[in-house]
Amino acid sequence: MHGMNRKTRRLPPLLSALGLCAALCLIDALGSPRAAATAGVKEDLDRIYDAEWQRWLTEDPLLATEVGDARYNDRWPDLSPGALAHTDAMDAAALARLSAVDVSGLAAADRQNYEIVKLEFERRTARAPFKPHLYDINHQGGIQTADETAEIAPFRTVKDYEDWISRLRSFGRYMDQNIALLEVGIREKRTQPRVIMERITPQIAAQRVADPKDSPFFKPFTQMPAAFSAADRARLSAAGREAIAAEVLPAFARFERFFTGEYLPACRRSVGIFDTPDGRAFYRERIAYHTTTHLSADEIHRIGLEEVARIHGRMLEVMAAVGFRGSFQEFSQQLRTDPKFFYTDPQDLLRGYMVIAKSIDPNLVKLFGKLPRTPYGVRPIPAVKAPNTTTAYYEPLAADGSRAGIYFVNLFKPEARPKWEMEVLTAHEAVPGHHLQLALQYEEGAGMPMIRRMADFTAYVEGWGLYAESLGDQLGLYTDPYQKFGQLTYDMWRAVRLVVDTGMHDEGWSRQQAIDYFAANAPKSELDITNEIDRYISWPGQALAYKIGQMKILELRAAAMSALKDRFDIRKFHDAVLSTGAVPLPVLERVVREWIAVQQAQPAQAGTRGG
User: Fold this and answer.
1) In the chain, domain spans
2) Which residue of 11, 115, 264, 300 sits 20 to 30 Å from the alpha carbon of 483, by its own alpha carbon?
3) What digits encode the pLDDT tens for the residues 176-231?
4) How many CA atoms within 13 Å lie on the side-chain side of 189?
5) Rounded to whole angstroms, how far apart are CA atoms 490 and 411?
6) How distant is the alpha carbon of residue 295 from its chain centre?
């Protein structure tokens, strides 16, 4: 997917509040009764935050691995009915405890932490009745791609390898729990659509190897550090082969029998989530979860139609500028098929991405006052996953800085990956998009409660990524009109999402109807369009967050420019937006409007107008 690579169970990162009210008056003397009471409330909240965060890590070792906490790297999540029920009950209990706290006396930053953590528990309890774990498998990830955990797990020490071996030895139990959940999904008619599940068959086949050394789970043993002794190398490698032979391969044999014999035949023929128990209510919850707004499906559908029309007009302007005299569809066909727009060698495609990524860096100072120190790398998407996923995604850096961010790019069929989309894609996934935003939030928010930093607000994270695409003109990108058309194509693509996601999940559109609408309005390749539509089918509501978030940031920038006029500084505006980290859109709006008020109250200074 474009955007960060996240499984449904994982909770992507967030950062601390801006703290615009950090200069609150210090009327209360230290040790006064009011100050003591306030300090007590903060201490109580900090204890709740830490206890709940530690519980989440214990319950979801994959989350712990992702954020760089290695304590649970020897195990998988417990997906038994009792464990899942316990999680839901503990989330509800935590929400009740938080709701009973009087936070009126806290400092603004502490109140904001509380507001966001409480909202995270509200969202978790709101989704629980819809049993999202029953849908936690699709062509982009699930038990059939569990080997990808090795991409984020550390393999630096002997202990790291021993942890991985322990995970391999317990994989059979983890597989059986996943199968049990899918069996419940069959009974309750809460399955993914068959058209999505058919894409998983080759992924399972890729795991069904005869020799354990050919298993994707064995890959870490082929890349052991040179510092390891020969004895450790031999011991670890042998233990890995034995665990894969004894647990992983038999588990996938069981899964293949179950999947092809029972689950796939039971999958629904429809594609919209409305056609499941409580499906329409579930979709409303998904919209609220991903957009952090109260918008209805109808309202979002209308916004999408309006954005499609607006962007289409700008595309026609570019077509006129390059002297193209045919129709929009003819121009789109040229962009999809002309050999000059494509690489033929996957390695040339990879090098092209690397060059673009590094060319952006020197120009970032024009638009940002603060830049991250943490680096990122560019890597190919794993071959087993590449045919069934989209053009690129970003794997976040570890919260403790022990793992750099990774910009994964798809090298499968380079003849289907046009050059005109490479610049805009890099701006979204790397810098100034996801990596810049996430690296800053980690570096600036090290003292914040982890549960606050790691909350997931898609509309902010992906809204920023889409907004970042629009900054390419000021970063030395889009100098070629075809590259500019590529940027408009990506903006159009996110507008189309508003229409087709609501169309399928609320209005009853068919998969083909969604594909046809996409193809009629954006010149992306047939492969990409199909992959995208299937992503929206399997992940209801998530794709709505991009455009809704981007439009809010653009709205706030317009408000700042109108209010500050010649005093508007694009660098300070971006720093203000990024200083919050991922927050609900209403919180972002409040913070930015407070920032505007502060700027208006300051003596006039020369600004750096932009935007």
Assistant:
1) 143-191+194-267
2) 300
3) 999 999 999 999 999 999 999 999 999 999 999 999 999 999 999 999 999 999 99
4) 10
5) 19
6) 21
Q: What distance in Å separates the CA atoms of residue 391 and residue 369, rounded to the nearest whole number?
A: 31
Buried b vs exposed e over 518-554: b needs ≥16 C-beta within 10 Å?
Answer: bbebbbbbebbbbbbbbbbbbbbbbbbbbbbbbbbbe
- Residue 119's Cβ-side half-sphere holds a number of Cα atoms within 13 Å equal to 22
CB atoms within 10 A of CB 246: 15
* Token output for 327: 């129709």
Give every CB contact of residue 308 below 8 A, 6+ residues apart in sequence: 492, 495, 496, 499, 521
- Cβ atoms within 10 A of the Cβ of 591, count? 23
Tell me the mean pLDDT in the region 293-297: 98
| Tokens matching residue 286 | 């998904």
Q: For residue 9, report the phi and psi dihedrals to the nearest 5 degrees.
A: -75, -20
What is the model's pLDDT at position 35? 67
Is the link from the previous residue into 432 a cis peptide, with omega within 30 of 0?
A: yes
Q: List the structure tokens of 582.
A: 């991922």
State the Cα–Cα distance between residues 216 and 214, nearest whole angstrom. Answer: 7
Give the pTM: 0.88
Which of these ranges, 8-22, 31-45, 89-103, 550-564, has the smallest mean pLDDT?
A: 8-22
Rounded CA-CA distance 514/528 in Å is: 13
Indicate the DSSP class of residue 395: E
Alpha-carbon gap, residue 580 to 598, rounded angstroms: 16
DSSP 320-370: HHTT--S-HHHHHHHHHH-GGG--SSHHHHHHHHHHHHHHHGGGGGGT-S-
Q: How far is it, in rounded angstroms, from Cα 187 to Cα 93?
A: 29
The predicted pLDDT at position 57 comes to 98
Residue 377 host element (H or E): strand 376-380
**229-233, 347-351, 399-403, 432-436: range with lowest mean pLDDT:** 399-403
For residue range 236-269, list pLDDT tens digits in order: 999 999 999 999 999 999 999 999 999 999 999 9
Q: Which structure tokens are listed for 551?
A: 């439009």
List Cβ neighbours of 255 (8 Å cut-off, separation of 6 or more). Answer: 143, 144, 175, 178, 179, 204
pLDDT at 8 over 80: no
3-state secondary structure of 378: strand
